[in-house]
Amino acid sequence: MGQTVLLTGGAGYIGSHTFVALRAAGHDAVVLDNFSNARADVPDRLEVITGAPVRVYRGDVRDGALLARIFAENAIGAVIHFAALKAAGESVEKPLDYMDVNLGGLTALLKAMREAGCFRLVFSSSATVYGTPEVLPVPETAPRGYANPYGFTKLACEQILEQVGASDPRWAIATLRYFNPVGAHSSALIGEDPQDFPNNLVPFVAEVALGKRAALNVFGDDWATRDGTGVRDYIHVEDLARGHVMSLGHLVETGQSHTVNLGTGRGYSVLEMLAAYGRAVGRDLPHVIAPRRPGDVAEVVADPSKAAALLGFRAERGVDEMCASSWAFVSRRRNG
Ligand code: NAD
Ligand code: UFG
Q1: Measured distance CA(77)–CA(116) in Å, rounded
Q2: Mutate which of 6, 17, 19, 36 to test ligand 1's pocket (most atoms within 8 Å of Cβ)?
Q3: Residue 57 per-residue DSSP state
Q4: What would the pLDDT profile of 217-261 be if each residue is shown by its tens digit?
Q5: Is 150 an annotated catalytic residue?
Q6: Which residue out of 37, 235, 293 has the highest number of ligand 2 atoms within 8 Å of its CB and is therefore the one to mutate?
Q7: For residue 146, what pLDDT is reported?
Q8: What per-residue confidence (pLDDT) applies to 333?
Q9: Where do the domains of the chain lie, and which CATH numbers do they carry?
């Protein structure tokens, strides 16, 4: 049966794509976002894509009174909690901001859910909780760690959820560990749209393709990988969004909490991704070799078998589709 799902951070990159996937699957969704990292026109774009009005509450996920009002005004059956600060580098400069938003946001939300009698939660975790993985592809049972305050908050959130889940059998909590989301919706109306300096590889490559940057800085070509550049598991954001719908379905059907990786199980190097983006754009994109980035690791690739067995989830789209959809979005955005 269709649920009304509260999406905190629902105007952001992954949240907006999940909004579309939820509606396509017969659910409805309500967005809570403070637009600190989202464009004001995202709700309008979601209306165009889904053909129905979008209910948005503009405010902070740490605001308990606002959360209580949202639960009072809507029959919320589940929450997907995306709202967070996510820039690992920035978190080293501003650890308290990350603890406040990421830990304070989660605890405020959990309290409001308990008050409202809503006990189904899907949480945005990250492959960052694996630190430097010893086993590749990395299974959910791998040891956890962190390398920066952002990673600390994701690990701490997982641990908060374990303790809260154990405190009351009504809780059904999904912890989804995303690998590297890239790409954009097939409409080219929503995509990854960093408000300021991009943090991740593909938004940087997009700026090179747009001519905003002369060349990509490749952070090291002396890693122990097939071409010396870092290897990651890139997953199309539309596949990732579908993973949320499947996880929610599992929570509703079984009431069982679960922790799963959402990745493809295939790794691509920086140079391979740059070449794929160049194919999307139709020309080779320039790069220069730069020093290694502090805190980086050589390779992180998901073992996706648990998500397949438990949820029936398999990523379908490859890197060419990821890069082509990203390019369609950023070039359309450039042209207004
Ligand atoms: P995003 O920044 O695009 O989306 C987060 C949204 O939350 C934004 O719209 C922002 O305006 C909103 N927000 C931030 N602080 C808020 C607050 N205090 N109150 C209300 N809204 C607030 O990021 P994203 O890439 O869509 O990431 C979503 C989630 O997935 C985050 O929890 C992030 O840590 C996690 N994650 C992202 C990646 C990635 O590479 N994109 C990887 C792993 C995990
Ligand atoms: N890279 C470059 N040049 C750039 C940007 C990135 O060479 O300008 C390289 C990195 O060194 C790395 C790869 O591209 O080898 C991917 O880097 P990203 O920053 O896109 O992704 P990471 O896997 O390093 O980290 C991201 C988030 C983390 C999160 C992790 C797993 O930034 O917060 O994915 O979800 F924890």
Answers
A1: 10
A2: 36
A3: E
A4: 999 999 999 999 999 999 999 999 999 999 999 999 999 999 999
A5: yes
A6: 293
A7: 93
A8: 86
A9: 4-182+234-263+303-311 (3.40.50.720)
